[in-house]
């Protein structure tokens, strides 16, 4: 029933948008293209494009696609990045004419269907987070961090306070300190306990009147939910600071708990991770942010508002930090998130998180005897194993294991992050994988740890590229493709 409702509603909204997009009431008469483009701007002849037969083109791009791994072809246990199945139905819905044909400069009156969709998405994101004020503007998770920290800075300015520091645990995502710095704050690192939780004594020692925000990922990058979070919020709030929840791991707690309920003042979503949109390749992305009602007046403009049965883009927000990107965000990604949310409903989102936890704990129990997990007998949606013993005993590193997995048809997990775990192997199976896939992955790890070290040092052996010099590749990027 959820699937039917989602399809029908998105189709109705699309029809409304499509009617508006084509603007049948437009009074401007259509003219020939020659009248619109002067002779001096028109080519005398078609461009000299190569003549290539269709089969050659199809084979070329099909062969290129087969050189790559993707979530459609392989298991992608990429810890901290949540690479899971992207429902193809959502791709079709996001490509309906009433969505893709809308021009961003159209008057609000002509895009009521789209604005209704975005408004309803704002409401759903606010309800899931427990933070009612929402902006769909930011272009990615890190951009959401930056926008939220700018909201915090604007709030402090209005209070007449000069707060200069942001606290972040040593297990934080690398974007946290980078976002803090870009927002004008200095970053102070808070230590973790041996159990992988925030060290409250170290936190207390670093709290002062200059603390603006404490940024916490919960569950954290070790795959552990920090049950101290309410106490952390109490300590930070007592010094006038705010709590920022890095929502990268929200797919572990959907429908189970809400950041606003355990003390968060701000957070961002990664729709591609939490609500299953396309991920990778540098974009396009989205990073909606949710904040408390008190901070809502500082959100970027525009936000979508509803007056009765009409919707509009609200720019009249005097305390807003202003625009953080053009127009009203990455609508294509947001539509996919909207479809995902309508399809699952509250019950389905909770079930998705429960399955993510089940899969991660099942895989942890299968591999921990060969790749020990230093923190926690149980995990949330992911876990961080260590290849330190393997390296000490056989000279086989986490990178060797990761590269060899490519030969077995599995994408490599995240390695060497977080830095608090030696020879870290970060594994996230996600809720969309079957038990058969998880068992096959575990069996591949068992075989790899028994193979000769020399074989592993040279892996992968079956890919077009084996082990590039990643430092040189980053410093001397080749931007022009050259045929072999």
Distance between the termini: 52 Å
Order of helices and strands: HHHHHHEHEHEHEHEEHEEEHEHHEEHHH
User: Which strand order does the major sheet show?
Assistant: 1-7-6-5-4-2-3
What's the CATH topology label of the largest domain? Aspartate Aminotransferase, domain 2
The CATH homologous superfamily of the largest domain is termed: Type I PLP-dependent aspartate aminotransferase-like (Major domain)
Briefly say what this structure is.
This protein is α/β, with parallel strands linked by helices and 484 residues long. It has helices at residues 2-21, 33-36, 54-66, 88-94, 97-100, 112-129, 141-159, 175-182, 200-206, 229-238, 271-274, 331-367, 388-394, 398-407, 435-448, 453-457, 470-475; strands at residues 133-135, 165-169, 186-190, 211-217, 242-246, 266-268, 289-291, 303-307, 310-314, 383-386, 414-415, 424-427.
State the main characteristics:
single chain, about 475 residues, alpha/beta, Aspartate Aminotransferase, domain 2, Aspartate Aminotransferase, domain 1, seven-stranded mixed β-sheet, three-stranded antiparallel β-sheet, 17 helices, globular
Descriptive notes:
- The structure is a single chain.
- With 484 residues, the protein is of the alpha/beta class.
- It has 2 domains: 100-343, Aspartate Aminotransferase, domain 2 (3-Layer(aba) Sandwich), CATH 3.40.640.10; 346-461, Aspartate Aminotransferase, domain 1, CATH 3.90.1150.10.
- Helices cover 40% and strands 11% of the residues.
- The chain has a 7-stranded mixed beta sheet with strand order 1-7-6-5-4-2-3, with helices on both faces. The protein has a 3-stranded antiparallel beta sheet with strand order 10-12-11.
- The longest helix has 37 residues, at 331-367.
- Residues 16-28 have low confidence and may be disordered.
């Amino acid at each position: 029933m959820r699937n039917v409702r989602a399809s029908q509603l998105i189709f109705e909204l699309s029809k409304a948008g499509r009617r508006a997009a084509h603007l049948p009431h437009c009074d401007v008469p259509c003219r020939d293209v020659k009248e619109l483009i002067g002779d001096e701007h028109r080519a005398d002849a078609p461009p000299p494009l190569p003549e290539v037969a269709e089969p050659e083109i199809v084979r070329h791009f099909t062969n290129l696609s087969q050189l790559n791994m993707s979530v459609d072809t392989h298991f992608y246990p990429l810890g901290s990045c949540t690479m899971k199945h992207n429902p193809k139905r959502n791709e079709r819905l996001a490509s309906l004419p009433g969505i893709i044909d809308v021009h961003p400069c159209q008057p609000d009156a002509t895009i009521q269907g789209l604005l209704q969709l975005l408004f309803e998405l704002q409401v759903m994101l606010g309800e899931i987070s427990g933070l009612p004020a929402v902006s769909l503007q930011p272009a990615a998770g890190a951009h959401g961090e930056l926008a939220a920290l700018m909201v915090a800075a604007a709030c402090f300015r209005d209070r007449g306070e000069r707060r200069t520091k942001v606290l972040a645990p040593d297990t934080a995502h690398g974007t946290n300190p980078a976002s803090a710095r870009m927002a004008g704050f200095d970053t102070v690192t808070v230590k973790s306990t041996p159990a992988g939780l925030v060290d409250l004594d170290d936190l207390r020692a670093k709290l002062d009147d200059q603390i603006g925000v404490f940024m916490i990922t919960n569950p954290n990058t070790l795959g552990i939910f920090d049950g101290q979070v309410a106490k952390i919020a109490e300590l930070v709030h007592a010094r006038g600071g705010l709590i920022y929840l890095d929502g990268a791991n929200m797919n572990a707690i959907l429908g189970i708990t809400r950041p606003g309920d355990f003390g968060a003042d701000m957070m961002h979503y990664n729709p591609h991770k939490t609500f299953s949109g396309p991920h990778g390749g540098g974009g396009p992305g989205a990073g909606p942010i949710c904040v408390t009602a008190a901070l809502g007046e500082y959100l970027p403009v525009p936000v979508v508002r509803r007056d009765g049965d009409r919707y509009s883009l609200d720019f009249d927000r005097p305390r807003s930090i202003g625009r953080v990107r053009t127009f009203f965000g990455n609508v294509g990604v947001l539509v996919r998130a909207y479809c995902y949310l309508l399809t699952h409903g509250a019950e389905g989102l909770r079930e998705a998180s429960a399955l993510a936890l089940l899969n991660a704990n099942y895989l942890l129990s299968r591999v921990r005897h060969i790749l020990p997990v230093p923190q926690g007998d149980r995990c949330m949606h992911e876990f961080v194993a260590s290849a330190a013993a393997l390296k000490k005993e056989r000279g086989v590193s986490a990178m060797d294991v990761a590269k060899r997995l490519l030969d077995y048809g599995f994408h490599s997990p995240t390695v060497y992050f977080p830095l608090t775990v030696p020879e870290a192997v970060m594994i996230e199976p996600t809720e969309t994988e079957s038990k058969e896939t998880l068992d096959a992955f575990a069996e591949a790890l068992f075989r790899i740890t028994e193979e000769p070290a020399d074989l592993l040092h040279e892996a992968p052996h079956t890919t077009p590229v084996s082990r590039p010099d990643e430092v040189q590749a980053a410093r001397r990027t080749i931007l022009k493709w050259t045929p072999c």
